Amino acid sequence: MTKNSNHLAAGRGFMLMLLAGAVGSALAAEAPADPYPPVKFDLPAHEAFVKDLNLDPARHQGPQTVEEQKKALTQIFNEKTEQNSLSKHYEKGHTCTTCHDQQRIGRPDWMTSVTAPEMKQKCGDCHDVQKKVFSKTDTHKKIDCVACHMPNMPSPEEFQGPDGVKEFYNAVRRSHLYKINVDPSAQTYVRNLDAKEGERLWTYALDKKGHAYVDIVWSCGRATPGDYTLSGDAQGCHSPATSTLDEGLRYADQSAIYAEILKWQTPVKEGFEKIGAGLERLKQLLEVTALKPADQTEVRLMLDKAEEIYDQVKEDGSWGAHAPRYLKDRVLTGVGYIEKAQAIIDKGGYQSASEKKNR
Ligand code: HEC
Ligand code: HEC
Ligand code: HEC
Fold it and tell me: What is the position in ligand 1's atom list of the atom closest to the CA of 14?
């Protein structure tokens, strides 16, 4: 309990700092009559997007009054605080200010009616392996980490209709759960079966490690209007309802998405396992096989290279999703090194070192 209230307190502190930042910058400019002037949006797709949400574009200029501002900010920040606290990032000590600079206001955010806090660290600053692997992608060149890992999602409270039926929701805020769970039966939101009177009927599902996650319908096939980074070709991602992609790239349901993911992941995982098994076997064989020094060096070089690939694929952790063709090529290369090393050892005739000494 204390753990939870601490999260909320931290969130509110952050919120107030932001609010103070907003007031500060408003005052620094020509002091306007309204301390919270509506944010002016200059994004081409704004009006269509707002209409998609059944909102009135003229009205949807951000919260109008101080009270509305405070309410919107409180909701948004409490929601992100809860989400972040259910992630591995939080477990590793990462809080809002790890990624955001709370003293600087970023771009105006026309989806959430608040301004986005400026980033000070980006995903790739810490996840350098993933960044390098993703830079080789052929399938998702135009999008970034955040598009897949932090899709716009509602908070569970929002679709709490009578009898727990999911009703209207605004999926306009970036989720801060980060982890994508590809399991075809995983669902980000589950019914809160222990809900007592007045408690919410839906909540976040947790995996075995106690972390919440983004399921693949939200990550890949969301039916909400895409976020602005996806406007144009990729809007609506792979959703059968809203996708602007080719017919073949719209997936009917979660199992169809999973089938696509498996097409990427199966060859990468198979290759990865072959390399792992090969490394273990050949390292043992190398100890007991007598080889000419030049062959020894050659084998060790092959094994080093194979291990480098093995470590990279493991560290990346996407098993193909970040760059399907590149990662498949990498494991094939790794398997090639293993086979070559095996061939050199085979030529040595599996003669054990002790046998050789005894001759
Ligand atoms: C691991 C990095 C990371 C952490 C930790 C993090 N954020 Fe974010 N946050 C982001 C990114 C990335 C965006 C999207 C920025 C963009 O679209 O330009 C974002 C967007 C936002 C936005 C903009 C509105 C929206 O929904 O898009 C708000 C508000 C926000 N974060 C608040 C918070 C709060 C509060 C916390 C702490 C509870 C937090 N963030 C923790 C990375 C992070
Ligand atoms: C300050 C450094 C830092 C930043 C910035 C950061 N991460 Fe992380 N991230 C970590 C660490 C540390 C872990 C835990 C790694 C581990 O233990 O294997 C992690 C774990 C993850 C995981 C795995 C979660 C799990 O439950 O296994 C994902 C997914 C992830 N990060 C995505 C992102 C994305 C997307 C961004 C950008 C919005 C981001 N990270 C920004 C440091 C960072
Ligand atoms: C096309 C969507 C997509 C993009 C873009 C993307 N990822 Fe991923 N990422 C995934 C998927 C899907 C997985 C999970 C694979 C699995 O668990 O089977 C994943 C896995 C990860 C993991 C490992 C998580 C774990 O569970 O251990 C990290 C960390 C991560 N991504 C970070 C990043 C970073 C950083 C970027 C940007 C450089 C990025 N991703 C870009 C889809 C994406």
Answer: 35
Question: How does pLDDT run across 233-292, given as a tens digit for each residue?
Answer: 666 777 777 777 777 778 878 888 999 999 999 999 999 999 999 999 999 999 888 899
Residues 6 or more apart whose Cβ sits within 8 Å of residue 146: 123, 174, 229
Say how many domains are in the chain: 2
- Using the 3D structure, point to which of 100, 121, 142 is the last residue of a domain: 121
CA of 308 to the centre of ligand 2 (A): 21
The phi and psi torsions of 119 (rounded to 5 degrees) equal -85, 140
Residue 193 domain-assigned (yes or no): no
SS3 28: helix
CATH classification of the domain holding 344? 1.20.140.10
Question: Which atom of ligand 3 is least distant from the CA of 216?
Answer: 12
> Do the domain assignments include residue 235?
no
Grouping H, G, I as helix, E, B as strand and the rest as coil, residue 102 is: strand
Q: Which atom of ligand 1 is nearest to the CA of 77?
A: 35
Ligand 1 atom 10 nearest Cα = 99
pLDDT of residue 237: 77
Which residue among 104, 121, 138 closes a domain? 121
What would the DSSP string read from start to end of 133-193? HHTT-SS-TT--HHHHHS-B---GGGG--GGG--------SB-----EE--TT--SEEE-T
Report yes or no on 59 lying in a domain.
yes
Between CA 96 and CA 82 the distance in angstroms is: 11
Q: Which residue has the tokens 């306007």?
A: 32
Q: Is the CB of 90 under 6 A from ligand 2?
A: no
Whether 278 is in a domain gets the answer: yes
Q: Ligand 1 pocket, 84 CB below 6 A?
A: yes
Q: Whose CA is nearest to atom 30 of ligand 2?
A: 178
Domain range holding 41? 1-121
Report residue 56 as tokens: 């009135």
